[in-house]
TrEMBL record:
GO MF annotation terms: transaminase activity
InterPro entries, per the entry: AspAT_Ic, PyrdxlP-dep_Trfase, PyrdxlP-dep_Trfase_major, PyrdxlP-dep_Trfase_small
Entry protein name: Aminotransferase class I/II-fold pyridoxal phosphate-dependent enzyme
Residues annotated as signal peptide: none
Keywords: Aminotransferase, Transferase
Zinc is among the record's keywords: no
Matches recorded under Pfam families: Asp_aminotransf
Organism: Microbulbifer taiwanensis
Length: 427
C-alpha cells in the first residue's frame, strides 16, 4: 500500500475495506497491552534464585553485617563494596567511582538533578540560580526523564535522534548560543525508545561538550540497557575514557540498575561519577538516608558472584525476548516494508521498537487501537511535555505480553496505522 501515489477513489475504497475489518476486530472485545517495557513473568523467574540465597549468612565478604545500619568502612551511604563492584562491571568503570543505591536508578537520577538544581555539583553554581536552566532532550526519548525536568521547572529543548545517537551538530549549536543549557539526557545503548546505540564519534563529541558549555553542565548517561543485547554483544564506546581524555570527567554522571536484569523495581541501582560529583551527591543524600538496602545488595552480589554469571543470565533474557522482537519486526516488515505508511528501527537489544507513522497520525492510531482493545503508550509520551510536534512517534514494548497476545496486538496495531493513514490522507 503506497498512499502518496494512490488516487482518491483508491483511498476511499481502502478506507471502506479497512473500516469493515476494523469493525469486525472491535467486536472481539480484546484486552491487550503493549505499553510499558516490563519484563515478562518467565524473565522474572530467571531470578527466583535470589530468594533465600543468603541462607542465614548476612555478612558481606568485608565483614559488614548487612542487617544493620552502616558499613564496615563508614556510614554505608555508597553501598556495599561487592555491590559497587557489580555496578562497576555493568558500567565498565572503577569500583571507587560507583555508588550502589536502592531499588531504582530513576530515583538516583532524580537525586542527581536535585543536587545540581538546589546545591550545584562540584562547587558550581546551583542551576536554580540561573535565569533559565534547560536540559537538552534527544527525542524520541524516555518520558520519565522529561517528567523530572518538568516537575522542577527545568526547561527542555528537543534534539533529534539519528542512527548514531543525538544530532551532535544541533547540540553544539544549542550549547554555543545558550549557557542556560545545564544538562542532557542520554540513553546511550539501545536507547529508549529508538534502540540506537551511540557511535564512537557521538560519544567523543558529547565528552567534549563541557569545553563549550556552562561549567555546571552535566551529561546524564542513563545506561539502563548496558547489558541487554539480543544477539552478540555490542560495545558502547566508553564516555568515561572519552571524558578523561578531554579533561571533562566532572561533566559525566552514569546510571544503571538491575531492574531489567533481576526484579524490576526491586533490584539494585548504581551511579558512577568523578570523586567531586560523588561527594556532591552524597552530601545531598546524607540528609535523606542513612544508607541503601544492603541485604538486597548482598543477595544480588551473591547471585552474580562473577560477571560471567551475569552475562549468562542476560543470555537467558535474550532467548525469551528474541521471538517477541522478531514477531514485532516481521509483522512491521511484511505490512509496511514496501509502503509509505511508517518507519521504524530494528533494535539489537533493549526493550522497545520505535515506530513513526506519517505526520499527524500517531494520536489517531493510539485511539483506534484503544477502541479495539489494544493499549499503546500514549502518543506524544516520548517527547517533553507529552507533545510530539509531528504527532508521529509510537513506542512499542514487546516484552511483557505472551507471544500470541503480542502477535494479535501487532495485527491490530498495523490495521490501525493503515486506517488512520488513509483517513488522514482523505481529509
Ligand atoms: N532508564 C530507562 C531508560 C528506562 O527505560 C527505565 C525503565 O523503563 C529506567 C531508567 C528505570 O530504571 P529503574 O527501575 O532502575 O528506576
Amino acid at each position: 500500500m503506497r498512499i502518496d501515489s494512490a488516487t482518491r477513489d483508491q483511498l476511499q475504497e481502502w478506507e471502506k475495506e479497512l473500516s469493515t475489518h476494523y469493525q469486525r476486530i472491535c467486536q472481539h472485545e480484546l484486552s491487550l497491552d503493549i505499553t510499558r517495557g516490563k519484563p515478562a513473568a518467565d524473565q522474572l523467574h530467571q531470578s527466583d534464585g535470589l530468594d533465600g540465597i543468603l541462607n542465614g549468612d548476612y555478612r558481606a565478604a568485608d565483614g559488614t553485617d548487612t542487617r544493620n545500619y552502616g558499613g564496615r568502612n563508614g556510614g554505608g551511604l555508597e553501598g556495599l563494596l561487592c555491590a559497587r563492584e557489580l555496578g562497576a562491571d555493568i558500567l565498565q568503570v572503577p569500583t571507587e567511582e560507583v555508588l550502589a543505591g536502592g531499588n531504582s536508578s530513576l530515583t538516583l537520577m532524580y537525586h542527581a538533578v536535585l543536587t545540581g538544581y538546589l546545591f550545584g555539583f562540584a562547587g558550581n553554581k546551583p542551576w536554580r540560580e540561573l535565569q533559565s536552566p534547560k536540559f537538552l532532550c534527544p527525542v524520541p526519548g524516555y518520558d520519565r526523564h522529561f517528567s523530572i525536568c518538568e516537575q522542577l521547572g527545568i526547561g527542555m529543548v528537543n534534539v533529534p535522534m539519528t542512527e548514531t545517537g543525538p544530532d551532535m551538530d544541533a547540540i553544539e549549536e544549542e550549547i554555543k548560543k545558550d549557557q542556560g543549557i545545564i544538562g542532557i539526557w542520554c540513553v546511550p545503548k539501545f536507547s529508549n525508545p529508538t534502540g540506537v546505540t551511540y557511535s564512537q564519534e557521538t560519544v567523543v563529541r558529547l565528552a567534549q561538550l563541557a569545553q563549550i558549555a556552562n561549567p555546571g553542565f552535566r551529561i546524564f548517561w542513563d545506561n539502563a540497557y548496558a547489558i541487554h543485547d539480543l544477539e552478540q554483544q555490542i560495545n558502547l564506546p566508553g564516555i568515561r575514557a572519552a571524558s578523561l581524555e578531554n579533561d571533562t570527567a566532572d561533566s559525566v554522571l552514569q546510571f544503571a540498575s538491575t531492574s531489567k536484569v533481576t526484579h524490576a523495581g526491586a533490584g539494585v541501582a548504581f551511579v558512577s561519577a568523578s570523586t567531586a560529583n560523588l561527594a556532591s551527591l552524597k552530601k545531598q543524600m546524607h540528609a535523606m538516608t542513612i544508607g541503601p538496602d544492603k541485604v538486597n545488595q548482598l543477595r544480588h552480589s551473591r547471585f552474580f558472584a562473577e560477571f560471567t554469571l551475569l552475562k549468562k543470565h542476560m543470555q537467558k533474557h535474550a532467548q525469551i525476548l528474541k521471538p517477541k522482537f522478531a514477531c514485532v519486526l516481521s509483522q512491521l516488515e511484511s505490512a509496511f516494508g514496501d509502503s509509505d505508511l511508517g518507519e521504524w528501527e530494528k533494535p539489537k537489544g533493549g526493550y522497545f521498537v520505535s515506530f513513526n507513522t506519517r505526520p499527524g497520525c500517531a494520536t489517531a492510531v493510539v485511539q483506534l487501537a484503544a477502541d479495539a482493545g489494544v493499549k499503546l503508550t500514549p502518543a506524544g509520551a516520548t517527547f517533553p511535555y507529552g507533545k510530539d510536534p509531528e504527532d508521529r512517534n509510537i513506542r512499542i514494548a514487546p516484552s511483557f505480553p505472551p507471544l500470541e497476545e503480542l502477535d494479535t496486538a501487532m495485527s491490530v496495531f498495523i490495521l490501525c496505522v493503515k486506517l488512520a493513514s488513509v483517513r488522514k490522507k482523505l481529509e
